[in-house]
Amino acid sequence: xxxxxxxxxxxxxxxxxxxxxxxxxxxxxxxxxxxxxxxxxxxxxxxxxxxxxxxxxxxxxxxxxxxxxxxxxxxxxxxxxxxxxxxxxxxxxxxxxxxxxxxxxxxxxxxxxxxxxxxxxxxxxxxxxxxxxxxxxxxxxxxxxxxxxxxxxxxxxxxxxxxxxxxxxxxxxxxxxxxxxxxxxxxxxxxxxxxxxxxxxxxxxxxxxxxxxxxxxxxxxxxxxxxxxxxxxxxxxxxxxxxxxxxxxxxxxxxxxxxxxxxxxxxxxxxxxxxxxxxxxxxxxxxxxxxxxxxxxxxxxxxxxxxxxxxxxxxxxxxxxxxxxxxxxxxxxxxxxxxxxxxxxxxxxxxxxxxxxxxxxxxxx
Length: 365
Prior knowledge:
With 365 residues, the chain is an alpha/beta fold. Helices cover 61% and strands 9% of the residues.
């Protein structure tokens, strides 16, 4: 029989299946990729036991817990746990601190004929390990930042590298005011956990130098970990360049064609297009104050016409007009100013192939 484990590194490196016995409300606040939530108690049961614990102490709380999870309810939960153990014979179970709840689940499984190990220290210990993994990586590894004007394809560059730390990928957001995807973003804890596991696996594979895209502190609603973001203000940079027309085409692909496709795939043709159109207009409205009233209204009118034409015929050509206007009048002046402030850190500038070659050479040195 496998014993209980506190080898958190091995668990995450090997994507070991885990069963989370916490209540759904706890699981929703933060979890680990691929973990299954099969709780000992549901939210209401947990609340009742917690109140009893505060008023009458642990013994009465335990008695109440056994009363609430008994009979058919208990049988159904054990059945779900047994199905998990059969599907994942090499997995583990845990609760918040690796204490009473996971011990009860373990005991009930044992009574049902299955010996199944738990993670010592539970969710809290696993989470602490990942936070330490993040801090250690920032302290011990080298990072280089890819900057560039909007639409130069910084994310495309990261996708072709063996050593990216893709903040936008982990945050499920494209990083700009227009960056919301059709699917939602992870919570902050899930974002950090995913980031830490990525770093852990890449470091285990021997990678000690990472390339990140230049980001603000927030990637949508996800906060870049403070130590990493502070480092990104001083790490060396490469500056990605591209022709204006190529940038327009890339933005058209990402923020019109692909985004519309995401919404349609998720919600169906009619509802999906409505959701896409609303999202695009909301994204423009979000920067209305920075654009100024007249400029915002002019670009919004162009966008609405382009959306009407896209709905009518499927053609996306009319979208280029607002994209060009937004780049020339808003994004490019802002990024030109930002580049001046970062000039001392820029060690190379060029188009995509040149930047990829430079980063490959830098990695070898």
